[in-house]
Amino acid sequence: MGKYVVPWEIDRSRVPVSPKERGPAWSLLLEVVNKDIKPGIVKDWGALVGEINGYSIAVGTEVEIGNMLMQYAPYISFKTHPVASVAQVGDIIKKTSGRPSRFRLVCRLGSASRDGHSVTYTRVYWPRPTIHVSGCPAFAATKPRKEV
Hints:
CATH topology of the largest domain: Alpha-Beta Plaits
Strand content: 35-45%
Radius of gyration: 27 Å
Largest sheet: 5 strands, antiparallel
Helix content: 25-40%
Oligomer: single chain
CATH class of the largest domain: Alpha Beta
Number of domains: 2
Number of strands: 8
């Protein structure tokens, strides 16, 4: 079973002009959505405020999702996007890079020159916040500056 993000949009040409006719149409839509939520195919559903579109989070096989979406045709159109979990993305990264899925988030703070040597200061934000000094043995031996 997969998890899918399903953005949806109502066909504007089929929306009644009269507010008295629109109310029952929205009520019918919500009844059908609630029927999909009860068995657990739809995990989350929402309409964008002031618009005639929204999103749904659905869980199931391709056939289950397809059958669920077909009951709304031709009044609502959908785009279906499969979603990967954090663990699945980690596996993808591990297999494509040939390495474990650990990475470092690094920001270059600046550089300086001392005794003819250039030095680069970098801050590592992940996995452990630290400041590194590289390029000059004299700088590396000095005490690192305090974080601001």
